[in-house]
Amino acid sequence: MSATEPPLLEISDLRVAFATEDGTVQAVDGVSFTVSRGEVVAIVGESGSGKSVTAMTLMGLPRGSNATFQGTATFDGTELVGASDEQLRRIRGAGIAMVFQDPMSSLDPVYRIGDQIVEQIRAHERKISKAQALDRAVTLMERVGIPRAAERLRSYPHEFSGGMRQRVMIAMALSCSPKLLIADEPTTALDVTIQAQILEELRKLRDETDAGVILVTHDLGVVADIADRVIVMYAGRVVEQGVLDDIFYDPQHPYTWGLLGSITRIDSDRSQRLPAIPGMPPSLLSPPKGCHFRPRCPHAFEKCVEVPPLEGHVANRPESLDRCWLTEDRKRALRQVDGQVGLRSTEPVIS
Amino acid sequence: MTEHDSLPPDRRDADSLPPDERDAGAPPDADAGGSGDDVPDAGTTGEGTPSASPGGSMSGAPAEAGPAADPGTSSEGATAEGTPLLSVEHLRMLFPIKAGLLVDRQVGQVHAVDDVSFALYEGETLGIVGESGCGKTTLIRVLVRLLDATSGAIRFRGRDITRSGRRELAPIRREMQMVFQDPQASLNPRKRVGQILATPLRLRGVPREQVARESRELLQRVGMAGDVLNRFPHEFSGGQRQRIGIARALAVDPRLILLDEPVSALDVSIQAQVINLLDELQDEFRLSYVFVAHDLSVVRHVSDRIVVMYLGKLMEVSPAEQLYSKPIHPYTQALLGAIPIPDPRVNRSRQRAVISGEPPNPINPPSGCRFHTRCPHATEVCRTIEPPLTEYAGGHLAACHHPQNVTAGEVAAATRSDQSPLSAGAEGPSLIAAGDGRETSATAPVQR
Amino acid sequence: MLRFVVRRMLVMVALLIVISMFTFAMFVLLLPNGNPAALLAGRLATPAEIHLISVRYGFDKPIYIQYIDTMKNIFTGQAYSYQSSFNVLDEIRAGMPATLSLAIGAGLIWLLVSILFGTIAAVRAGKYADRVLTVLSMIGVSMPPFFFGAILIYYVAYKANIIPIGGYVPFSQSVGGWFGHLVAPWITLSILFIGFYSRVLRSSILDSINEDYVRTARAKGLSERQVLIRHSLRNSLIPIISLWGLDFAQVIGGGAILTETVYNLHGVGELARDSIGRLDTITLMEIVILTGIAVVVIGAIVDVLVAYLDPRIRLA
Questions:
Q1: Per-10-residue mean pLDDT, chain B, length 448
Q2: A128, B331, B444, C28: which one has the fewest Cβ atoms less than 10 Å from its Cβ?
Q3: Distance from C-alpha of A26 to C-alpha of B414, rounded to nearest angstrom
Q4: Residue C201 within a domain
Q5: What does pTM read for this prediction?
Q6: Which residues of C touch A119 (CB under 8 A)?
Q7: What is the CATH number of the domain that holds C120?
């Protein structure tokens, strides 16, 4: 995170749109952020916020002629947006690796685990022999905590539990020593005790390899557990970003307040009602004018029909950026609900 | 010693349920969609419902006090207030595993629900949590009689409905509704919202001409605009569909709603809306809930008492407010420790018991205490003798030989609960002598 | 898996028995005037002659004895046609090479060509090649063999004289002749299946592109070609092979009657057709039973093949 070294990944004003029969869906609408080596950046948002599309775009994965990309995403000196298929192929799995949400369906059911790991190694290192690649697969599997790895190389995915499959996915992702690991909801499909194990595994890896990690998730508990910095997305835009503790203890955007307020906590006071965010996220086909959160925001005022810029508003915290027209004082006053951060719910908000 | 004794031949096959009965088993609607309008009229804001706080739901629940002390087994022991609405006694659901070249022989059983007893009182919310494979989903299916229990009894208002036929069940099914996890899959995609709601309303005996009006009222009650009767489920978001599902369950004016992961498919902000809605409805209609979910935080928020299951057995039955502050069973501690708290400072400072390994196969569950293979406190007795459910002060039950977070005095005052599994041993709980590990259960971080 | 195959074969054997009984019953009991002996004896036969025939063929015995005797004859190769007095097994043996040559050749052609066409159509989905293949497969599916066969015979064989007009030359006699005589029948028989299979494969591949494991394959840095062949196509072949097993067995079991007839191949299909025309019970039963056995065996082989392709099935 030192200022001198250029960041591992620098995304600037990334826009992704999908042409559909009903019109253009602006899935990602001007997203900018950076990721440094050894840093875990969490992208938080609900479905449709554009967090997964952002991650996929870095891997060059959204396909089809209906997608259009704008902006820049520079990874380790290479521009990803507009890169050729072959350039992207070389980066995928080697420079940037990815772990997906559902380990049950992310491995090809018809191949042995070992062969699937070997396939990735040999896609990037043509000279390595199959035996060498298998040896490396065993080492990787042991490293991510798969017992009897040499034996289990020959297993098929359906013979593994969900947690074990996710470990295989992580082993595979690590097989070519990536500099950036993108984990898209890596623990959402897993039981809590297994989730804790997988998060521990990711943390260990980050420490050992000094890779940058982008963690895409909707779970603020996971974020609090592992992230260094947090990016909050809503309806295709970054609404707020900052250092972990600042996001949790001094959140600037009303949507972040709402998110923090509406989660049930295992250690919270049960007698309090959850300050839920009213309404639903907007359709990306016809998003509201100005701030996308405006229709659900109890604090919206006239100015909010203009798109607020993503800017720093907090003194001495240049890394804290948010998209909200409210002044800092107003924010501090408004975000308290029953002594906790939340979105004040008064009358229903009419869009 | 668990399986063989209790397998009446006629109960072996869950499929023996006649098809029509199976249909009827699903609450009139096999769907449960929810839906809220983008702008919940009343749903989330609570105007018009004075006691919107979740705590309100506890007012009517005698649960944590007296009756809970002796909830499970039979109605006769209960006090006047306390005939449980629903009680479950030594319920087992074993699925046979068949093999053989020509003739099927039973080679094993999946111990999905294995001798479970509990009671639910009027107005109370009972949460059931556990990891996948713990049997919670099977349990709820047995409760609504989608599956026929292998043995044990289910009582509704004291009446045994374990083996009741379709005719006997019909009135009970109107009082006992179910809301499913996936509102997408549980609402018939070819029916309009009006039709989805009309069926249960007609079932309740609402005259045809009033159905539309009542449907609109129901929708408004769950926070949706009343003018969506002509729309199809796919036109709604997940949260709205779940609201429709709740409205459909409410249409027959039930006393009890069984909720199977009702919010886990929804986004966080929508989850909160639906949880609040459920709270309000409970206060307004004095509903009882059985709330099954894997998310301990959500369950703890909505429930009065929480049942923690592991591999088909009850590990702990805890009053909600004690679950986090005083987990007695090491498995509950492990679950709590595994959940990250969305508060970085708290999260960093707390000591977390993280357990290693994965749940064993329910076909060959471990002997003695089923958790002993992953338990940091396990001793010889845990490997051999199944612990009985022990009742501590305040109706707090735990099935553990080496209970945590309790004093020697509390252990001495504890009694064996008659909800204990029949196969449990006679041994009472004993505190582990070694002082370490007792309070915090410091476990090695995940490593295999 | 073994359990599955064994059970399936048992079911098929039971089914075969039922079918043979049904065939038997149809032709022996439900004859136009009720008496097979009378039918065999001809219109001008005297009652004495009819009685003689009745005794000779055992038509005077109870019906179940007749059935059992017939089955015994079939399985010992002693069954003789009532009408033509030929040994049925010999006759079937004579027709088998033509039928097998037709079925196996066509089976391979339609499998390989539809994999090729289906894959191309999927890769070029929505583009020119896909549209052309779509139209072609529509034509293929809707083209009856007798019509397409007639066109081939008239234009390619008769007018252009590129291939022989019909008939069958055994492989042992002349490889070139065998091949030359079968090209047109193979194409005729395949074209229907190619149309159908390539559509199924195309949509199966297109569906698989949305599978998580295909996304994983791409994220691993495999080339598009590797992703397509090793992951999309490999998984999409599983249903195609299952389907192929069913259809191939059906073609052996008489599904090629039309093609055999059009090209005058003298195969088992033609024999079956002729026996139906003659109400030749014995021949028909034997064909039904033998082709039934072939169907069962091929089915088992295909099951094993599919289990090899899809390890998830190998359980149990």
A1: 40 39 39 36 36 37 38 39 86 87 79 93 93 89 91 92 88 89 83 92 89 92 87 88 92 93 87 91 93 91 94 94 92 91 89 80 91 92 93 93 91 90 85 49 36
A2: B444
A3: 62
A4: yes
A5: 0.81
A6: 217, 220, 222, 230
A7: 1.10.3720.10
